[in-house]
Amino acid sequence: MKYIFIVLLSWLNINHPAQDLYTCKNVRITLFSAALIEDISATSPAGVSVFNTNTGELDFSVAISSFHFEKAFMQQHFNSDYMESDKYPRATFKGKIAEHIDVTRDGTYAVNATGELTVHNITQTRTIQGSLAVKNGVITMASEFMVKCADHHIDIPQILFYHIAESIKITVSASYTPYNNPSK
Length: 184
Description:
Elements: H1 2-11, E1 21-33, E2 40-52, E3 57-63, E4 68-69, H2 72-82, E5 90-97, E6 107-119, E7 122-135, E8 138-148, E9 167-178
Antiparallel strand pairs: 1-2, 1-9, 2-3, 2-4, 3-5, 5-6, 6-7, 7-8, 8-9
């Protein structure tokens, strides 16, 4: 986990003061596939994120194998047959929030983050809508968006189209705390 934070921090421009950096070590990410025969959902509480409040830069990373399904065989097929998590172990988003939010003032704000979403080793530029809330100094972010399997070369055999939707709903929620620079 510490290695992932070092990588995320290296992506950000850390020439800014440490008080501008916020981290979340337990980003909750949910996948949901609504299909004709059976809905499929999985959750990972193991995403990590870094947010630079000064620049708006925002990075997320999640291990594909950290998603848990209700049925073990679904988890096995997800990792081996569809996501190939041994070859492509992480999904990431590296972007920037367009709106400048004063994180010293409580409130809830609509935000748009534009950046590079990488899933299954395929990167696409995306603008993802979400919300950023500040309450008593705590920053939270939430978003819900769709990802088309075909856009990331995730092949679903024709016979399984009744079981797995072509687009997967992704829900993300994170609560940030100020980054505690261990070098100090």
